[in-house]
Automatic annotation (TrEMBL), chains A, B, C, D:
Upper taxonomic lineage: Bacteria, Pseudomonadati, Pseudomonadota, Gammaproteobacteria, Methylococcales
One Pfam assignment: Semialdhyde_dh
Active site: C149
Family: Belongs to the NAGSA dehydrogenase family. Type 1 subfamily.
EC annotation from Swiss-Prot or TrEMBL: 1.2.1.38
Name of the protein in question: N-acetyl-gamma-glutamyl-phosphate reductase
Domain of life: Bacteria
Entry's localization field: Cytoplasm
Subcellular location, principal: cytoplasm
Semialdehyde dehydrogenase NAD-binding domain span: 3-141
Organism: Methylocaldum szegediense
Any one Gene Ontology molecular-function term assigned to this protein's record: N-acetyl-gamma-glutamyl-phosphate reductase activity
Length: 343, 343, 343, 343
């Protein structure tokens, strides 16, 4: 039984971790922290967990986490990089769901996250937790940087094309749409239902923090520079991300459906839909799965990839548990075999 | 392993049965029928089931169901009563999720469902599948009439009060709100998103088919006539029912919180919330659970019970599987231990 | 041209006032205050007003409002009662959309609003701005207490029955459902879309501030004590209130459809639907209208009234402008002739 | 007073025409047709129109429209092309909101709409009713082809760039998102709220009928071939379109904000937002307005234009009335001065 701690148990990724781990046969939740709700029962705040989680929020401190085999950070950016080193020093593994260890270059991190990185020495060691790329590294990692929700959907859409060299790398466009839970559980006027319901908008068109992360991931597999335009949109629904990715095909690109099916054959959580499909975000609601369809509009030389995930599962907590399973030698699907909630 | 067939696998209760049964360790899905989609793969229609259900729709006929231990009817009203007898004669047990066997009096059934009942002899045998009332009978039943979604939420809200005699039985009001999936997967203009989104209305105020069912259920436990006003409402959400039930307390009614907690102690799927709570339908989304809170506004002698379920789970497919578990001597919670999807 | 000021122009009732008044041919907006956004253009915060409102937010102070003929308060409770006296002393009329002047008894006000009333002498003078009851008084009033959204929907549903004495006054139940905009434009976690979307709950079942207001209004027309249970619910939509009101008929109650049609004949903003109707909140979206239907379920002696309004229009800003029209001798419908936005 | 007829008054564009025209001071609705609801009052089907529209549905026939000055077709594709000739021959002007007269080449029309065009001689005469391009022609036209909703949003986003030659014309991408009312008022399972709520998907990625229309419009102003990828998406909201358009800038493109502001200076219904803005569809809800923002992500040479309209207003009925105003020499804004419904 893996003894796990969760730092930041009151946000949406935190409660989603609790939902998954409470039913995971190989994990025991031994500590859940929350700066704001110390002493309160977890299931008082989240009545969906009544009968499944018998924990009380504790202060976020290294002391509270002694005895854990693994700690998840489901915190705002800037917390994990201040605590991870102490935990690792005590042989406690760390899976960070925030952005603290996602970028390799501390200068780039500082530019996009607005403060110097306080643990730059750990950036090198941290493994980017996208199992479809880094499975072997994850198995032996001590520190995992769980990918962002947008980067997961976009990279899975592009990997077969970039790895195989069939698209131009200088003009990729990722138009991505997200449900509102991606913004977290924070009291902010723009996220009120009266503001986000029945409406749609783009945001951060000038530049979004997930842009350098996607670019870094694609460049790593490409081995050279990738030019990408990334525009996120806020959609009036709670869960789900839909990436619509556009790229220009090089000559001699072969059968794209086969390319995708081959690339992801055997992957437990990536599902290539039949030709002509249009994935719905609802079909992956609540589950650790990415469904993908590949199209060439009007049989031209633009390829359009449609990729859907649940931002809180394959885009966050589910992927984190997938990483945990790999790190601890479990069946990769342990605790993650569930079916999307339709309708 | 129980061999199960599902008649009517293309509606929302049918696909919800599939979602639950596909992960049930003691059940094997051996036949799924659909009049309209014969020959099509189930997971072509429902891509959330890809990798979990490997079946093809077959014609709805008794022959197709030979070899089943149990058949679920997830059909429109009027189908089960035409096939159940033949199945029972072949020693195949039946759980009907439609209304065909819910009312004991064939004359009442005919009045509310607009045609004569064709198997009135089975009405006597059929057991009303509300485990919180009929657990012992269900264990030995061959034919289960699964309660309607509204009746489940309202009866669970009222049972402790009616059984204990603390309320007047001549002036009960049940104001109930339902998500749109309760209307089923039918091509009808009033159920378009443009019609039901961002709006709210009552319907069938003159009289709704679930009224005689609720009345029958309450009168059975009361042992006498119950007068009930029942008004259903359509809410712009997909899943969930919230019953708000009003009754007048008799003198000497005692502590109501304790009454409810005692009544449902040990019930695996009824959860009495702490005093002062207001249940959210989201907290039972996707799960077989009823959460209930009890209030006396302004400390007066009106009791208000708030009761929430997921109409497709505890209000339909989940409760059906709970009945199956009881009929086949399994752990009552088999296949049903899951946590509500929040947010 | 009436020179109007708006105190609290950044909340939903404030921006709704702006939307209506900007197109009102007899009103000129001369001052819009906001504590938090002084110096900012109104249409920067609300781009829907671009080209229609050419104002800049100013500090909320009596000085900023000198020169107005009329000031609307679209503020949280507790503001209007601190400024209204000074404005009235300068011959500036006041329409308060908050709760400060709705209750006649300062002790009752203090109990429900959690502080002593600072202008109890104005409570007597204030006219409750429900034109369907107080039209004559409104015409000559200096200070209007605009009714709450719930009280508007419930009182309009009950007035014909209470005035005519056809129902028992000791067992009225008002089960009322509201869209989330009724909670205002405040940064609070429970009002995030992730919290309120796709879910439904009751709240304040123990007792809600609108209860004494409804009770006072009904008792005034009844001339005696009224016992009412009032339970509000939060619905996953932005605009709209649906009141479902239950009462017990006395003997000899006559034709209820006619009773309602007669009572509201000539009322420009109350519309009695044909027998058998079920009003949708969408049909009054964005407009100053109450649509009502009357039912007797199963022809029994319980009457059920269904009443819908847009909480921000007939439940707030529209009704406020209706009051303004009456106070200044304009056509009562000036600026309010518009059609509900369907779909 | 212009005497107008509406053919197809039961769809969403039809009822939206009624909503606008009922309050238009220069138009009188003299005939509303509906194949399915002949003899029924219009306001029985659409209770939002009670008190504003006093008409009864009649059979769709030329006879029923004699006496009209103008007929709007708010019909499925294929109807207007069968009736328009007869109406024009009787000196009745025609504004077609369907696709029948949008494409100039009958062969292209036949390929995308699946049948031969029955009135190819009228295609030449028909004026494409985008006032921002064809204002002068519209003033003297007898037959208007009202643009599609997607083409309106995309063309308004691109016109300044294409006309001025600052972008490459061989690699334009339009990723467009629409609310569900764009699919019309048809009883189809994919448009049920249970299917479209809380989910998001692309559709017709292979090729959509609005693609040749957009291409034709852009090529007309460019004077040469335009290559465009167009992908529509279905969003869980009722009204609103958001186009996100990507293009590659040529060298020496100048200040884009100024380019857009200059191009649309004086346009009553196109509003260029300040630099850095992200338009929300809600801000144009219910109104005849397009709001646009221009961005260069990371100051690169990709331009991203964000363009929002209400698909039923500037994308259909509002634009049709704007055309009517021009054709009949009225103020172009008559009947269209209204403010977006926020929240």
């Amino acid at each position: 039984m893996i003894r796990v701690g969760i730092v930041g148990g009151t946000g949406y990724t935190g409660v989603e971790l609790l939902r998954i781990l409470a039913l995971h046969s190989e994990a025991a939740i031994v500590a859940v922290t929350s700066r704001s709700d110390v002493g309160k029962r977890v299931d008082e705040l989240y009545p969906n967990l009544r009968g499944f989680v018998d924990a009380v929020f504790v202060e976020p401190s290294v002391d509270a986490l002694i005895g854990c085999d693994l700690v998840f950070f489901a915190t705002p950016n800037g917390t994990a990089m201040r605590m991870a080193g102490d935990l690792l020093a005590r042989d406690i593994k760390v899976i960070d769901l925030s952005a603290d260890f996602r970028l390799k270059d501390p200068a780039v991190w500082a530019r996009w996250y607005g403060e110097p990185h306080v643990s730059p020495h750990l950036l090198e060691e941290a493994v980017y937790g996208l199992p479809e790329v880094n499975r072997a590294l994850i198995r032996s990692a001590r520190l995992i940087a769980c990918p962002g929700c947008y980067p997961t959907s976009v990279q899975l859409a592009l990997l077969p094309l970039v790895e195989s060299g069939v698209i131009r790398l200088d003009r990729i466009i990722a138009d991505v749409k997200s449900g509102v839970s991606g913004a977290g559980r924070k009291a902010e006027i723009p996220m009120l239902m009266s503001e986000t319901g029945e409406s749609l908008k783009a945001y951060s068109v000038k530049g979004h923090r997930h842009w350098p992360e996607i670019k870094q991931g694609l460049e790593q597999v490409a081995g050279r520079t990738v030019e990408l335009t990334f525009v996120p949109h806020l959609i009036p629904m709670i869960r789900g991300i839909h990436a619509t990715v556009y790229a220009e095909l090089n000559a001699g690109y072969g059968d794209l459906q086969t390319l995708f099916e081959e690339r992801y054959r055997g992957e437990p959580f990536v599902d290539i839909l039949p030709p002509g499909s249009h994935p719905d975000t609802r079909n992956v609601r609540g589950v650790n799965r990415c469904q993908i369809a590949v199209h060439r509009p009007l049989d031209g030389n633009t390829v359009v990839i449609l990729s859907v995930i649940d931002n809180l599962v394959k885009g966050a907590a589910g992927q984190a548990v997938q990483n945990m399973n790999l790190m601890f030698g479990l069946d990769e699907t342990a605790g993650l075999r569930s079916i999307g909630l339709y309708p």
